[in-house]
User: What shape does this take?
Amino acid sequence: MIGSIVTTVKGHLQGTMENDICVWRGVRYAKAPIDGLRFRSPEPVDNWSGVMDAVDFGPVPPQPMDRAVRTGMSTNEKMDEDCLFLNIWSPRADDKKRPVMVWIPGGAYITGAGSLDMYNGHVLSKNGDVVVVSINYRLGALGYLDFTELACEGEIFENNLGLRDQVASLKWVKENIEAFGGDPDNVTIFGESAGGNAVTTLLTVPSARGLFKQAIAESPAPTSVYGKGFARQLSEKFLEILGIGKGESHRLKTFPVQEIVAASHQLLQENSQEMPGSLAFGPVVDGDFLPDYPLDSIRSGRTGGIPLLIGTNRDEATLFDQMAPPSNPN
Assistant: This one.
């Protein structure tokens, strides 16, 4: 059933009405991070004319499908580098200004998407009278490896891209969610596993300040944030896997995405064998976008007193024992 048309700051969107809840799927919150924007920070979308359909989910971020299926993804999901979309469930697109909850999916920063069936926001939106948003962000090497110190002369690489995507999605919510019946000044971010790590990290990202009011971190592993030294080791190993030599970092900009995904999976597997219990991908303390380790920032009171609900899901770690190789230390 056709839902109401809403007006964002860049143009009009047409969603659907499903079981008395308004739904907008596949809403682009940043330009496609492809071609010249691969390994670059997300850029705001351009204005558009007319009414854009927001009925179907956008593509999921490129990821190893055999691993993604274990976390609930369908085998027929469309994957594409053009993946920076979000989805919205709201009781009504009115002026009520409901609380907003932004879901950041997990998946060890190599799998996941906001469109998974288990992240359907319908029940939460209806029972809680809240606006629910789920997001995609870049994964694996495309989102979380740091090539800034390996760049050739004249080449520009930026780091923490998945984290920057999350901030971009929150900026979009801040600017637009009121049109969907939400309160831009009452936003809660919440996530599980890598999504929980994203939550505890976003608490300490300067550019995220003012974009959310409170946070919920489920099984977050807040220490899975790396320094520049270890991040460089992972990036160098990744280039070895791809067969890219020193002085050839420019090749990353045009490498087939399927090969980048395969190399990301190999790096994850090798890291799990060599350093069980650690992730191959995660935010990097760069002294700028992410100034310090989140726990250090939290301990020193640099998070501005944002309320945080934190805990561990029962049987959380059983999933990692099912991976090949297992991610848990023996």
The first helix runs from residue 65 to 70. Residues 2-321 form a domain with the Rossmann fold fold (CATH 3.40.50.1820).
